[in-house]
Automatic annotation (TrEMBL):
Molecular function GO terms recorded: rRNA binding; structural constituent of ribosome
Protein name, entry field: Ribosomal protein S13
Gene3D superfamilies, A to Z: 1.10.8.50, 30s ribosomal protein s13, domain 2
PROSITE patterns for this protein: RIBOSOMAL_S13_1, RIBOSOMAL_S13_2
Family to which the UniProt record says this protein belongs: Belongs to the universal ribosomal protein uS13 family.
Gene Ontology terms: biological process: translation
Pfam families, sorted: Ribosomal_S13
Keyword rRNA-binding: yes
Organism of origin: Cyanidium sp. THAL103
Keywords: Plastid, Ribonucleoprotein, Ribosomal protein, RNA-binding, rRNA-binding
Residues annotated as signal peptide: none
Amino acid sequence: MTRIVGVDLPNNKKTLIALTYIYGIGRNLSKTILKNLKIDPNTILRNLSESDLVKLRQYIEKKHMIEGDLRRFQLLNIKRLIDIGCYKGRRHRQLLPVRGQRTRTNSRTCRIVTKNINFSKK
């Protein structure tokens, strides 16, 4: 297991796929990172040289917000919306869909969470 930015990446996967194990890095961002560093995306992670791994670590740490920082940033944004009392903040507080989806027949996922919190069976 190769460790990059505090995440253990599987050695037997292609570099393109292995980078997506890091929270905040999807396939498109992974392609962009590997293209900028001139690393072949189809290379198996264990076959990368140590210098390539060092370049990869440094590039990701400097250029992109990932893992804990990204999660904290998202939570602070949601908290800010709740604090200012805007519509999106109220929807977050009520655990309902935020982006205009209907709630009469859909939004099961959101409503089941609140239902289980309020009415737990004994």
